[in-house]
Each structure stands twice: as structure tokens, then as C-alpha cells.
Amino acid sequence: MLHNKLAKSICILCCVYFLQTNITYAQGQSGQPTTDTLRVDLKQAEKMFLDNNLQLLAQKYSIDSAKANIITAKLFDNPEFDYSSGLYDQSAKKFFDYTYNNGEVSMQLSQLIKTAGKRNKNIQLAKTGAVLTEYQFSDLLRTLQYTLRNDFYNIYYLQQTQRVYDIEITSLQKTSTAYAEQVEKGNISKMDLLRIQSQLYTLQAELVTLQNNIDDVQSEFKLLLRAKATIYILPQTRQADDKQMSVLNVPYQSLVDSAYKNRYDLKMATTNVTFNEQNLALQKALAVPDVTLNVSYDRLGSYVMNYNAIGFGIPLPFFNRNQGAIKQAKIGIQSSQVQLEGMKDAVESQVSNAYLAAVRAEKLLNSFDPKFEENISYIIGEVTKNFEKHNISILEFTDFYDSYKQNVVQLNNLRYNRMSQLEQLNFTTGTRIFNK
Fold it and tell me: What predicted TM-score, i.e. pTM, was given to this entire model?
């Protein structure tokens, strides 16, 4: 009779805790206070990321710096003015003697005239450099958004798994305490207590590992949001929201075409070829000598007083015709073309791998009965009733809970894997096709 009452009490406690799981879980990891909890959905998280992320802010400054190079390239060279005068007149024994017949003064104004379209070629090169910097920003944004969204779903499903551990650990803790009391009274075998304690310690060790994993992902996620380190993130989503477009309904070739059109790293590789071609044109232009025009005046230093002259200067390209820089520019074109072809191959390979992985993840998840969780929760109630009626042993009862834990954990892993593979497809195609 006493044993039967104890079993009823334990079952009631398990059921009560099962119904109150959401309250316990809302407090976060290790009893984290709700005042330090940040509940955020994916759209809110992305807005915080765009507003606060330091890497993006730093890259934006790089864009402004690259655009400033365009302003510099558009500027003309300044004219140069030279002036000289006599310091000491030996015959008159005077410093700075500017009398009519004695003081020497000379002046010259010169202007560099660039030839072969060097200025325009510099402007085009600077504009292409600015475009490359903008593409670098967009590719950084694509990479960080993928990390953000993947971390969001990872945290969410890890926390769903943590719920399962919380349920079973709390149930076993209460059972262990009650059985320890009954073992001292000699009403229950010590083997049953050891069985419960052994499973409890195993679950607690697994939970610590799980919590460490959550903390690691949370740390990266909070860094992306620039949220306080003391905040505990609770991603808000519904499984119904995760039932997005099936990857099986999207033609594979459309994914490849999207990648070729929207991948900013591929655009960078293409633009880099253009940049090197423009650089070659500039280096060839630099081999053409520039002309310096000048006008000058000399008061006493020439064959006549008040000498006026106009002239020009030009370097003679006998030795230095910029041969080395031209050769380097040609090599740069060849290298960038090879890199572009390699990038194209890599893009298609990445899309193919991501597509196949997403298809496998979706098929595997769809193979599970949609009512699996509902059915297994119902069975928990039935097992509890049978345990209350003393139809099953404590060993069978805990074994079922362990089986329940393993299946739900696996289901959460499959759901996360599907979402992660869809995000990988978004990343490899450069387009928000799934999980919009």
C-alpha cells in the first residue's frame, strides 16, 4: 500500500512538471532571471544586426574611403611656381639689392600636362575599386547574415532539446529523493535507487554539455547583434513558420542561375578582371611621357635684361618605358581570369552540394509521422497510468522516458538540420529563396 501511494505521488509530480515546462524553461539556462532574457524573432534579430554590427559599420567606412579615391583621381595636378633672387651683391656690398641695374630676380610658372588619357584611366580604376569595395561589403553582409540566421535556428532547437532534459532530470530528481527515503526505511530495493541515480547523473552530464553548446552559439549570436553578454537569448519562432517552400519544388537550374546572378564573391571575381584590364591600360599609358609647359622671367641672368621665355619639358623614354609594371598588369589579368573560372566552378559545386543536402534533410524529416510528438506524449500519459497501477516497473518507466528523450532530441536535430540546409542554399545562391 505504501509503495503504491509513493508511486502515485511520483507520477503526479512528473505530470505537473511536464505541464509547467514552459515556465521553467522561460527562466533560461541555470535559472537565468527573466529580466536578463531577450525574446527576439528572426526579423527583429536581423534589424538589430544591421543597426549594431561593428564589422558592417567598419566595412561601410571602407566604401567611403574607396569613393574618396575617385575624388582624388579627378583632381588635376597643381601648377608649380619657382622664384629666386640675389642674396648678396659683391660689387654693391649689399644684401637683397633690387636696384635697377644690380638686383637679380627670376621666376617660372610650370604646369604638368598628362598625356595618353592617364587621368581618365585613373578615374575609371578608382570607380572600379569602389565597386569592388561595395561588393566586399555585400559579401560580408551575406556571410554574417547566414551565420546569424543559422545561429538563430541552432539556439532555438538546442533549447527545445534542453526542455526534454529538464523534464526528465526534474522527474528523476524527485523520484531519486523519494526512493532514497524509502530505501532507508527498507521499503524499496537499493538497486532501483541506483538505477535512477545512474540515469540521472548521465542526463545531468549530457545537459551540461548541451548547455555549453548553447552558450557557445549564444556568444556568437550576441556578438553579431552587439547585445550585452549577460543577456540570455530566447529565439521566438513557431514550427508552423518553419514549413517553408519545399526544396523539391524549386528547379535546380534556377538555383544555379540565381547564384551566378546574385553571388557577390562571383561579382568581385568578375570585376577584378575588369580592374586588372583597366590597370594594364593605365600602365601602358604611364609609359607615354607627360609634357611640362612653362613660362619664365629673368631680370639679369640672361643675355638680355628682363628676359621672357616659354618652353616645355618631356622625359625621353629611352630606358624606362614602364616595362615591369606592364608585365605585372598582364599577369594580373591572367591570374584574375583563372580565379574567375575557379570561382564559377566553386559556385556550381557549392549549390549542388547544398541542394542535395537539403533534399536529403527534407526527405528524412518528412519520413517522420507528423503526429509522432503528439502520439508519444499521449503514450507518456498511458505509461504514467500503468506505473500508477503498478503494472510496469520503475526500470520500464525510466527506460521509456529515456527513449522519449532520444527520439525528441533526434527530431529536433532533424528539424534544425533542414533549416540549416535551407539557409545554406540561401547562402550559396545569394538569394533569400527559403525561410523568408
Answer: 0.82
Tell me which CATH code domain 2-77+114-287+322-429 carries. Answer: 1.20.1600.10
Which among 261, 247, 242, 244 is positioned nearest to 431, based on CA atoms? 261
Residues in the chain: 436
Residue 322, Ramachandran bin (φ over 0: left; ψ between -120 and 50: alpha; else beta): left
Outline where 186-263 has alpha helix (H).
190-225, 252-262
CA 55, 146, 254, 335 torsion: positive or negative? positive
Give the burial string for 168-201 (b: 16+ CB within 10 Å, else e).
bbbbbbbbbebbeebbeeeebeeebbebbbebbe
Rounded CA gap, 377 and 390, in Å?
20
pLDDT digits (tens, 9 = 90+) for 320-379: 999 999 999 999 999 999 999 999 999 999 999 999 999 999 999 888 877 777 777 677
pLDDT of 129 > 90? The answer is: yes
- Scored b (16 or more CB within 10 A) or e, 2-21 reads eeeebbeebbebbeebbeee
- Every domain of the chain and the residues it spans: 2-77+114-287+322-429, 81-113+288-321
DSSP per-residue codes, 183-205: HHHTSS-HHHHHHHHHHHHHHHH
Other beta carbons less than 10 A from residue 271's beta carbon: 19
Q: Beta partners for 291?
A: 113
